[in-house]
Amino acid sequence: MKAKLIKVSASLLLTLTSLQLHAKTDDWQYLLDNNLSQWEVWMGIPHSSVKGLPDNTFTASNLNQHGTPTNALGLNNDPKNVVSVQQINGEPVLSITGEIYAGLTTLKQYENYHLSLLVKWGDKKWAPRLKAKKDSGLLFHCQGPHGAFWKVWKACHELQIQETDFGDYIPLSGPQADFKGELKNDKMTYQPNGKNLVPAKGYIHAAYEPDFENGKWNRVELFTLNDKAVFVVNDYVVMVIENSKDKDDNPLTQGQLQLQSEGAEVYYKDIKLRPINQWPEDIKRLANFAN
């Protein structure tokens, strides 16, 4: 496996070739089928603008403040068919309308793995994000009950999937991690060549923004091993987090996966995972772990 060196401004930007990373191998576990048999869905509180809901459904105009998890539509209760699977060109494609905030959650927990998926945007957006960027997310090391964050998602780490912001990092509802970063243009940003780890507090921006224009499939990959994780977007290493811990400072190295419905139409396919017990050489070199 070779790494390509591409000069961007005054720095060297490292990318991966994907030929060997995505070769057909027997150790991939494919997570998507027509029946979503490996997932469950937790539906949050619908926005007050949503039409066609069952009578007496609780709605709110401010989805991150109003209501409690018990006001949510709840487990596997999807009256607007927000989450579904379509067969397109002979393969299952996950369709998420985004009309109601929701989390599609794996039934199993995973530890020490390479996860790969393809994602692209649809056209629709919904309140309260009609004027915001299209947004979704890959949540990992998810723990505890549904609804810990905004009455929808579990406590977790987030690999952000948002227009022009693929691979940003957000800790949700308790988990913690460190990263090599600094304040850059008033944003906390991952610095691949940084020397010191700092706590990741709040929203952390990726080193690069290599996502494609709307309508094209993007390859998003997550490598996790022990207390570290590496985010790769379209073959660019864009984020590295280390010293993953839960809210009680215990090592956080495993958990469920979630895909977000968050106000935008989005599609996922080729969702697959395989175990790893050591870092692939290119990943280890490009990640340049601090410890």
Automatic annotation (TrEMBL):
What highest taxon heads this organism's lineage? Bacteria
Q: What is this protein called?
A: DUF1080 domain-containing protein
- Keyword match Transmembrane helix: no
Query: Pfam families per the record?
Result: 3keto-disac_hyd
User: Where in this chain does the record put each 3-keto-alpha-glucoside-1,2-lyase/3-keto-2-hydroxy-glucal hydratase domain?
Assistant: 94-274
Q: What is the lineage of its organism?
A: Bacteria, Pseudomonadati, Pseudomonadota, Gammaproteobacteria, Alteromonadales
Q: Which UniProt keywords apply?
A: Plasmid, Signal
Position of the signal peptide: 1-23
User: Would the keyword Electron transport turn up in this protein's UniProt record?
Assistant: no
Q: Which InterPro entries match?
A: AL/BT2_dom
